TrEMBL record:
Species name: Lentilactobacillus raoultii
GO function terms (MF aspect): glycosyltransferase activity
Keywords carried by this UniProt record: Glycosyltransferase, Membrane, Transferase, Transmembrane, Transmembrane helix
Residues spanning the membrane: 237-258, 264-287
EC number: 2.4.-.-
Signal sequence coordinates: none
Name used for this protein in its record: Glycosyltransferase family 2 protein
Amino acid sequence: MEKSTDDLVSIVLPVFNEEQGIQRTIDTLEAFIDNQPQQFELIFVDDGSRDKSVQLISEARQFHNNIKIVQFSRNFGHQLAITAGIRYTSGDAVVVMDADLQDPPAVIVEMIKKWQAGADVVYGKRVSRDGESLFKKVTAAVFYRTLKRITNVDIPLDTGDFRLMDRQVVNELAKMNETDPYVRGMVSWVGFNQTSVEYERQERIAGVSKYPFSKMLRLAMDGVTSFSSFPLQLANWLGSFSIIFSFGYLFITLMTGFNTLQFAVFSLFLLMGLGLLSLGLVGAYLFRVFEASRKRPLYIVARTKGFQSASKHSST
Ligand code: UDP
Ligand code: MG
């Protein structure tokens, strides 16, 4: 079919044991692409699947020359699959989506419209989640709200990794070599013009979720430790509280009569407070080491004007 624009859109799909639904995903996406004016490439990142997923995707390449495969040597996890996938893209815009069609392809049209209107990141905001357990919905709702409170980066609520990113954003992400990446947080951290489209998350077409509770917990920990020092500050708060409490206690007991036992209680709280406070201080220094070790760029320059050779890569 004749394409009316020469934009290339890359779609990155992490795949882990999706043999039951992958064929339908490919068929649905190819049918979708046929009706779009842009060029598309589909980059499947096989995250160490132990089933026929790769074989099925490879076979589909005979019929669709826009399919590309990045195959991991083992299961490295969803976030690293996305991280790798976007590095292999060459599109002007990059879309990340689940390989189980939980993220409806039709939403991509809306994302592209907003991108063409000037947005650099268009993330999908889930207004509903079909076919997911009450447990998952509740834990996710609580987690994203807590994370928002304790982090200093504005990570949008009810948003997974389904999103469109401009090439410039993808280039910045590709520079971030984080050991345990929390991609949705990193995209927020990068900045630029970010906006959302609302969508209804569908039931997965086949198979079961590849996110058991253990992986969910790990993702949540990565989110917190990547973007918040709150847990480390907790020791400071508890320590300060304990010291204040000890002096309050001392004051009250001095008024009402003071004995050895009460002095012991006072000392206990005072020492515990000092101990926790020191721990918090150690934590604060540790966090700086941790921040430095992440090697995030210190800042990102969105655009420059008036320079002889405008450099897109002037971050350090
Ligand atoms: N996935 C992956 N590696 C993993 C777990 C999941 O690449 O270790 C893929 C999976 O195949 C799917 C996407 O990441 O395309 C999201 O996983 P899933 O759909 O199981 O999570 P849920 O939608 O249930 O949160
Ligand atoms: Mg899914």
